[in-house]
TrEMBL record:
Pfam family, one: TetR_N
Keywords assigned: DNA-binding, Transcription, Transcription regulation
Protein name: AcrR family transcriptional regulator
DNA-binding region, residue intervals: 17-36
Taxonomic source organism: Nocardiopsis terrae
Segments forming domain HTH tetR-type: 1-54
SUPFAM superfamilies attached to this UniProt entry: Homeodomain-like
């Protein structure tokens, strides 16, 4: 994965081939395809594990059925994001490359948005399992992803991403006040 990020940083996403990634990683193309379906998947390879940790946190920390309490559901998702942040697979340097690539490539943004939609769906499922009404769970899952997308758009570097996520959640909590 590191070899791919190095190449993407040096040449941009569109100018890097699977063969080049495999060569830099000192593996064959067949080995590459054993781990990744395509070069885009390299960028999002660990997203599933990250969502698993967030869902586990939600299920572990929900101390009561959430019902229709959107504020409680959002708070739980925010806490899950903060608690799992230290375990994020991407280093700050890789995150910076990913942000740059997403800004440069429409195809990558489309794939990223698909991964965010899948994440929102899984988080909504965890919230539902934790006793949230379906409407509340779905809205909270998508609102959490909106906070992440907002932070990505506003953060000038990966070190500022958590601050912008927290600010976006904070703005959601001011609704209705």
């Amino acid at each position: 994965m590191s070899a791919a990020f190095q190449l993407f940083a040096e040449h941009g996403f569109d100018n890097v081939t699977v063969a080049a990634i495999a060569e830099r990683a000192e593996v064959g193309r067949t080995t590459f395809f054993r781990y990744f379906g395509d070069k885009q998947q390299v960028l999002f390879a660990d997203d599933g594990a990250e969502v698993d940790r967030m869902c586990a946190y939600v299920l572990d920390k929900a101390d009561r059925p959430l019902g229709g309490d959107l504020g409680a559901a959002l708070t739980l998702l925010r806490e899950a994001a903060v608690a799992t942040r230290p375990y994020a697979a991407l280093s700050p340097a890789h995150s910076a490359v990913l942000v740059r690539l997403l800004r440069e490539s429409v195809d990558l943004r489309s794939r990223y948005l698909l991964t965010r939609q899948q994440r929102a769906f899984r988080l909504a499922g965890a919230l539902t399992e934790a006793g949230a009404d379906e409407n509340t769970a779905v809205l909270a899952g998508h609102a959490a992803m909106a906070c992440e997308l907002t932070a990505m758009r506003l953060a000038e570097g990966p070190e500022l991403f958590p601050t912008h996520v927290d600010e976006a959640y904070g703005m959601l909590h001011t609704l209705g006040n």
